[in-house]
Amino acid sequence: RAAWIEGRPKAAALHERARASQVHGTPHHWVRQFPPPVPLVVERAEGVRLHDTDGHVYADFGLAATAALWGHTHPAVVEALRDQLGRGTITMWPGEDHVWVTEELSRRFGLPYWQFAVSGTDANRFALVLARVATGREKILVFNRAYHGALEPTYVVLTADGVAPEPGVDMGGIDVRRTTEVVEFNDVPALERALAGGDIAAVLAEPVMTNGGAVIRPEPGFHAALRSLTREAGTLLLFDETQTIPAGPGGCVRELGLEPDLIAMGKFVAAGIPAGVYGMSEEVAAVAARYTEHGDGGLGSTLAGGALAVRAMRTVLGEVMTDKAYAHMNRLAERYAGDVAAVIERHGLPWHVGRLGARVSYAFMPEPPRNAGSLYPKPGGSLRAALWLFLANRGIVLNGMSGAALFSPLSEEADVVRHGELFAEVIAELAAV
Ligand code: PMP
């Protein structure tokens, strides 16, 4: 901590100045939770390097939690956006890019119809509105500790006596118990009980859980049960692929052969230009059509599908998310996961490494976690923070909250090798204490 603070006088001064105009001196609420005692104040990002205000350079393994999954300055994206800036950022009229993008989304992810949103949160919100209108039901079901964006009805956890707001989150008077059911991921009997009431509009889920510092995989048969139970109950199945796209260029939907009624995604889809998309089945599209036919404001959004965002999406889908790019990303992720696993084994640590394609994280427990219930209440926050700081002091930045590492087409093998050395060093140091 001392080394970090000492080396960052400019960042500390900026943080102090920010306190007068930003709550807690941070521009949005996430940043306050990050481990560094003085914030990492970024001046610019280039390739996979972050340059801070005090002249330090870091290899970014966090990649803005998939918003920068393709690297910060992918040449194809930079060139397309430069060009688009001279052609207008938004007109509120459709263009050829919009058609190209929705055609490509259908081809990649299977669902026939697609619409634009302005973020991952926004895509989930639109998709939930459609699910509620299509089913005439209000309730939704989420898995314990899943995160789907700044959506109050999803800030919930499972408690001994039912559902409650997440600890520390004031719901501002919204009673989540009325609108939201929560069950543990991989718990088919609980899912069956929750759906039996026939009052749930949609199950909103990550196909593989990524939030909370672990990769939590579906057990054999879980997805088949989830699909058949939701069909029987007349409940729509909405997959959020915002964080699972490192699994492959068609997401988990393609990797695992899943058949949702709706898909929502944000972040990576426009290489970090604010945007989201949501896809839907024929049946859901028939409901969405009511809004467009009447032209009322129900599902409108001025900035959704802005020309700059859609150009970014066309570039991402057409030039960046290639099999070749994924082969590189996967190779580095495999090396990183292997290095971490080898150190864990050498020291006999009861830790588990989880990998989903180009995403790797480790949980401080010996077995792969089944669900959030088996991960909490000990996600190992202070140990994670200590590891983060050790690596960041030496020029490698992991995701600040989850400790996850992501690999982009621009990520470099030398950084992964260096990480392996540093990880071995810090664990040897900790083991000696
Ligand atoms: N879905 C998932 C799985 C996420 O992890 C997030 C954000 N971390 C979102 C949706 C929301 O994305 P955004 O914050 O960009 O709206």
Which structural traits does this protein have?
433 residues; alpha/beta; Aspartate Aminotransferase, domain 1; Aspartate Aminotransferase, domain 2; 2 domains; 7-stranded mixed beta sheet; 4-stranded mixed beta sheet; binds 4'-deoxy-4'-aminopyridoxal-5'-phosphate; Aspartate aminotransferase family protein; transaminase activity; pyridoxal phosphate; transferase; PyrdxlP-dep_Trfase_major
Q: What can you see in these coordinates?
A:
- The chain has helices spanning 2-6, 9-18, 75-85, 96-109, 120-135, 176-179, 188-196, 222-233, 251-255, 282-294, 307-320, 323-346, 372-375, 381-393, 413-432; strands spanning 42-46, 49-52, 57-60, 113-117, 139-143, 156-159, 162-165, 180-183, 200-205, 236-240, 262-265, 276-280, 352-356, 359-363, 396-397, 405-406.
- The chain is α/β, with parallel strands linked by helices and 433 residues long.
- The protein folds into 2 domains: 2-61 and 322-432, Aspartate Aminotransferase, domain 1; 75-320, Type I PLP-dependent aspartate aminotransferase-like (Major domain) (Aspartate Aminotransferase, domain 2, 3-Layer(aba) Sandwich).
- It has a 7-stranded mixed sheet with strand order 4-12-11-10-9-5-8, with helices on both faces. A 4-stranded mixed sheet has the order 1-2-3-15. It has a 3-stranded antiparallel sheet with strand order 13-14-16, with helices on one face.
- A hairpin with a 2-residue loop joins strand 6 and strand 7.
- The chain is globular, with a radius of gyration of 22 Å.
- Residues 65, 119-121, 124, 147-149, 206, 211, 240, 242-243, 266-267 line the site of 4'-deoxy-4'-aminopyridoxal-5'-phosphate.
